[in-house]
């Protein structure tokens, strides 16, 4: 398993997919170290140690490269979520960017509105996202939501739901600021910004999950088990964080 993992790391490295290759290098090194401990053949141990040393050196070089990209504001990682893929709940998608210093979050998504659309549970999705922030390692104090008004009779329900989320967040010491834009559809902005420099652009916004089959089907409560709709996630890092 260790050999296969480092082979994958080398392939990703050659393809300039550095963030993914770093993860594979780290996992592969850990597995190979376990092999060294269990091996009694000294010659094999020596060969493994040599390879491990090479992989550790490359992993350190990649770390430095990624850090420099962050400092230069050039970091970019792309995640492709396939149709019907599972394992992409909000915690899994956002956790590595939600560091302890995150205190302010911007959500720009035109479709945080009607809960009764045939394929959308957008308000519930936004609530789930807020729950992740409240229980995460970060100390979020302010969430800024930019969205659009629901049309017709749905507007009153949208406003009521958002106000309820706002009041509930206040019980946890979190302020929700809500702004509405009539032009956000034209700009097609669907992104999440953290004040530690990370920006996550999601092709479908927060609503990349498929509608659950029923209220008592697997995946209704646990988003990691819910099938997704195909979308692309682009992750950027900039030293220039968003200002109010």
From TrEMBL:
Annotated ranges, domain MIT: 1-71
Highest taxon of the lineage: Eukaryota
Pfam families: MIT (PF04212), MIT_C (PF16565)
Organism (species): Erpornis zantholeuca
Annotated protein name in UniProt: MITD1 protein
InterPro entries reported for this sequence: MIT_dom, MIT_dom_sf, MIT_domain_contain_protein1, MITD1_C, MITD1_C_sf, MITD1_N
The encoding gene: Mitd1
PANTHER family: MIT DOMAIN-CONTAINING PROTEIN 1
């Amino acid at each position: 398993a260790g050999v296969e993992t480092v082979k994958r790391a080398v392939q990703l490295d050659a393809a300039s997919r550095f963030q993914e290759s770093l993860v594979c290098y780290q996992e592969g090194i850990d597995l190979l170290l376990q092999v060294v401990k269990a091996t009694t053949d000294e010659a094999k141990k020596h060969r493994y140690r040599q390879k491990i040393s090479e992989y550790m050196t490359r992993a350190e070089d990649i770390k430095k490269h990624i850090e420099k990209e962050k400092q230069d504001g050039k970091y970019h990682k792309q995640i492709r979520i396939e149709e019907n893929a599972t394992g992409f709940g909000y915690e899994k998608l956002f956790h590595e960017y939600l560091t302890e210093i995150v205190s302010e979050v911007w959500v720009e998504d035109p479709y945080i509105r009607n809960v009764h659309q045939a394929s959308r549970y957008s308000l519930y999705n936004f609530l789930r996202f807020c729950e992740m922030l409240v229980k995460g390692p970060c100390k979020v104090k302010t969430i800024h939501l930019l969205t659009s008004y629901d049309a017709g009779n749905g507007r009153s329900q949208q406003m009521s739901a958002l106000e309820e989320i706002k009041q509930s967040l206040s019980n946890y010491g979190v302020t929700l600021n809500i702004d509405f834009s009539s032009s956000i559809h034209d700009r097609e902005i669907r992104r999440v910004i953290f004040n530690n420099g990370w920006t996550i652009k999601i092709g479908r916004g927060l609503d990349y999950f498929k509608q659950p089959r029923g209220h008592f089907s697997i995946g209704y409560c646990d988003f990691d088990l819910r099938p997704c709709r195909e979308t692309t996630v682009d992750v950027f890092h900039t030293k220039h964080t968003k200002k109010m």
